[in-house]
Amino acid sequence: MLSFVYNGLPARVIFGSGTIADLPSEVDRLGLSRVLVLSAPAQEADARGICDRLGKLSAGLYPHATMHTPVSRTDDALAVVRDRNIDGFVAIGGGSTTGLSKALAYRTDLPQIIIPTTYAGSEMTPILGETHEGQKHTKSSTRILPEVVIYDVDLTMTLPASVSGTSGMNAMAHAVEAMYAKDRNPVISLIATDAVKTLALALPRVIDNPLDKDARADALYGAWLSGICLGSVGMALHHKLCHVLGGLFDLPHADTHAVILPHVLAYNAPAVPDAIERLKDALRTTDPAAALFDLADRLGAKTSLAEIAGSMSLDDLEQAAQVASQNQYWNPRTIEIESIRSLLQNAWTGNLRT
Ligand code: NAD
């Protein structure tokens, strides 16, 4: 018999084209008058535009967000927050900028408005991953969950096709793992199914024509749905492996998701027949793991770890398998070091065994 727990997350979401125009009224609605605008260095010009739009509601800019949310950078930003008597944050950018905003909100309990410009989905979760002395630590708290998210498709039009593809596969991974989450429920399963369907149709259109606004809107919508999944139910082996590889070897976040996802799905498939049926339907395929591998390839993502390894070498797979098998966490199929080692070996060469 059906039995579940459903936790809805309390975020206000504004979605569309030109929605950035709502920002001043959203700042006002939260009762803020001295917000700090956050961005990565590459998006400083967009962030300046937001400061201009906010006028006297803005107390300036901090354009130094960086990947994996290092605590040292957060401490640096925190000094600015105190110095300028900041009462809230506006973050424009991808998961890295959202990460900085969450880290600041966690420490100050100040409200956040996030304007996502990638498909990472972090804006919809109460989870913060931050790095300190080479280790990535994860925290979960209601203080971390942003109060308002403004999705403006216009601000995603400049996302390069190569980043759009991998970032889209990052979103896809949230929805796929939600389908077999231990704490899944009917609402999240519906959302996950629609997310997979929407992303699979939209992302190839974005790659073919990055200026196709309808395709961009669909991809952003799919990313929002995936973000809801990520924030609502527990993730499993795929997210653990990407976390381990990112933490140990500093592999690029979205590219790692794109490489690993088909391999984890092929590994988990025998243990999750219901999810596989949903995925067959959503991806219109008889073999979802192979379909995801082909999709990543179609989107121009690298399909082997070897291609994105940087300073990581084949020998390092042993350490990755060991760390990923420690501190047992829930996964629908048992995790053994040998099977994880072999999964990683296949991912290293880009050889999918379904
Ligand atoms: P990112 O934020 O680092 O962005 C990638 C690059 O794209 C950056 O150089 C950025 O400036 C650029 N960029 C972003 N939007 C652009 C646009 N519209 N036009 C042009 N350039 C643009 O990468 P990401 O993949 O979005 O985020 C990765 C980070 O997010 C990782 O640190 C990851 O751990 C974190 N994350 C956290 C969660 C969570 O729930 N806590 C979820 C997903 C990702």
Q: How would you describe this structure in keywords?
A:
single chain; 354 residues; alpha/beta; Rossmann fold; Dehydroquinate synthase-like, alpha domain; 2 domains; six-stranded parallel β-sheet; two-stranded antiparallel sheet; 52% helix; binds nicotinamide-adenine-dinucleotide
Structural class: alpha/beta
Beta-strand level of the residues, as a percent range?
Answer: 5-15%
Number of domains: 2
The averaged pLDDT comes out at 96
Determine the CATH superfamily of the largest domain. Dehydroquinate synthase-like - alpha domain
Unreliable stretches covering 5 or more consecutive residues: none
Q: List the bound ligands.
A: nicotinamide-adenine-dinucleotide
Largest sheet: 6 strands, parallel
Corresponding CATH architecture of the largest domain: Up-down Bundle
Number of helices: 14
Q: What best-fitting shape do the alpha-carbon axes yield?
A: globular
- As a percent range, the share of helical residues equals 40-55%
**Helix and strand pattern:** EHEHEHEHEEEEHHHHHHHHHH
Short note summarizing the structure:
The chain is of the alpha/beta class.
Would you mind describing this structure in some detail?
It is a single chain. This protein is an alpha/beta fold. It contains 14 helices and eight strands. It folds into two domains: 12-156, 3-Layer(aba) Sandwich (Rossmann fold), CATH 3.40.50.1970; 161-349, Dehydroquinate synthase-like - alpha domain (Dehydroquinate synthase-like, alpha domain, Up-down Bundle). The protein has helices spanning 23-29, 44-54, 71-83, 95-108, 161-179, 186-208, 213-232, 237-249, 253-268, 273-283, 288-298, 305-308, 317-325, 337-349, and strands spanning 12-16, 35-38, 58-62, 88-93, 112-116, 127-132, 135-140, 148-152. α4 links the parallel β4 (88-93) and β5 (112-116). The longest helix has 23 residues, at 186-208. Bound molecules: nicotinamide-adenine-dinucleotide (NAD). Nicotinamide-adenine-dinucleotide (NAD) binds at residues 40, 42-43, 67-69, 93-97, 99, 117-118, 120-122, 125, 127-129, 155-156, 158-159, 163, 167, 170, 230, 253-254.
